[in-house]
Structure formats: C-alpha cells, structure tokens
Design a protein that fits this description.
- With 76 residues, the chain is mainly α.
- The chain has three helices and no strands.
- Helix 1 packs across helix 3.
- It is globular and about 35 Å long.
Length: 76
Amino acid sequence: MLQIEALVQAHGDWLALLATILERERIITSVELARTLSEFAAHTAEDRPAEGQILSFWASRLNDTAATLGKFPSVH
C-alpha cells in the first residue's frame, strides 16, 4: 500500500519540476510561486489544518528548489 508520506513527497517533487519549467518559460519564478503557495497554505490551514500542512510542505520544497536553481547558470 502506498504511504501518505511518499505520496506527498512525490507531489512536491512534481510541483518543483513544474515550477522549474514555469520559471524557465518566464511565466512565474519559483520564489514567487513558493510565496503564493505559502500564503495559500496559511489560509487553508485555518479551516483544513492537514491540507494546510501539506501545502506548506510543498511551498518549502519550492523554496529549496529555487535556492538550488539560483546556484546554476541558465542553460537557455
């Protein structure tokens, strides 16, 4: 049976990949997406704490991705 933690991590990784593509295409930066998701997580947590916690985890994952991407030169 699939563990919830693995599912949450996989979705976070997918979101980080999507954020990377959106930033590469100059649609939205990973930092801005992480900030927006963090705000959304805070609002969500007021009524649905478990969902808010997951969204907050994903926002943190995006922040980590943005920090990592900032260390590498653009390849396009």
